[in-house]
């Protein structure tokens, strides 16, 4: 188990994700591509990082109806929850806006400003979910669950 440094900004924890952990998240997401459903390597894969230092993969799970397709972010969040972990501190991106909403809601419940991390031209970029939700809904939870 690993602990990460964080700062409090706007009443939320904002974690500092070390570069080696980011690299490991990208590596595991790439590796998970073979498990896209139903066709290997056809779809998307992401990983989430929890405050305990655990990484969980998610892969897209396609339905023939299309509407019922689950995005890799949704399955990654569910993967963490299945293991009893709801304190998501980072997720690999890019993410579609449906998934940004899910990540935002996770952030509201955990009071952690989930860091979106992505790699472009061999450079790692990080941006908290709050900065990607300029007019969020809901703005805050009616009744905080914690
Ligand atoms: Zn999505």
What does this structure look like?
- With 146 residues, the chain is of the alpha+beta class.
- It has a single domain, classed as 3-Layer(aba) Sandwich (Cytidine Deaminase, domain 2), CATH 3.40.140.
- The chain is 27% helix and 25% strand.
- The chain is built from three helices and seven strands; from the N terminus they run ββαββαβαββ.
- The chain has helices spanning 19-32, 72-82, 97-110; strands at 6-9, 12-15, 45-50, 55-59, 88-92, 115-120, 123-128.
- The chain has a five-stranded mixed sheet, sandwiched between helices. Strands 1-2 form a two-stranded antiparallel ribbon.
- β3 (45-50) and β4 (55-59) form a beta hairpin.
- The model has no long low-confidence stretch (mean pLDDT 95).
Brief synopsis:
The protein has 3 helices and 7 strands. The chain is of the alpha+beta class.
- Write down the CATH class: Alpha Beta
Question: Approximately what portion of the residues adopt beta-strand conformation?
Answer: 15-25%
Ligand kinds: zinc ion
Radius of gyration: 15 Å
The SS-based structural class is: alpha+beta
Number of strand segments: 7
């Amino acid at each position: 188990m690993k602990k990460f440094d964080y700062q409090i900004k706007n009443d939320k924890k904002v974690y500092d994700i070390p570069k080696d952990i980011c690299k490991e998240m990208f590596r595991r997401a790439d590796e998970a591509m073979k498990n896209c459903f139903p066709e290997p390597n056809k779809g998307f894969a992401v990983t989430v990082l929890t405050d305990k230092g655990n990484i969980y993969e998610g892969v897209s799970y396609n339905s023939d109806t299309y509407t019922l397709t689950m995005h890799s972010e949704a399955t990654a969040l569910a993967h963490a929850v299945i293991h009893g972990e709801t304190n998501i501190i980072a997720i690999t991106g890019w993410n579609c806006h449906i998934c940004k909403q899910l990540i935002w809601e996770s952030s509201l419940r955990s009071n952690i400003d989930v860091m979106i991390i992505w790699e472009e031209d061999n450079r790692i970029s990080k941006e908290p979910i709050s900065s990607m939700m300029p007019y969020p809904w809901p703005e805050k939870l009616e009744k905080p669950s914690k």
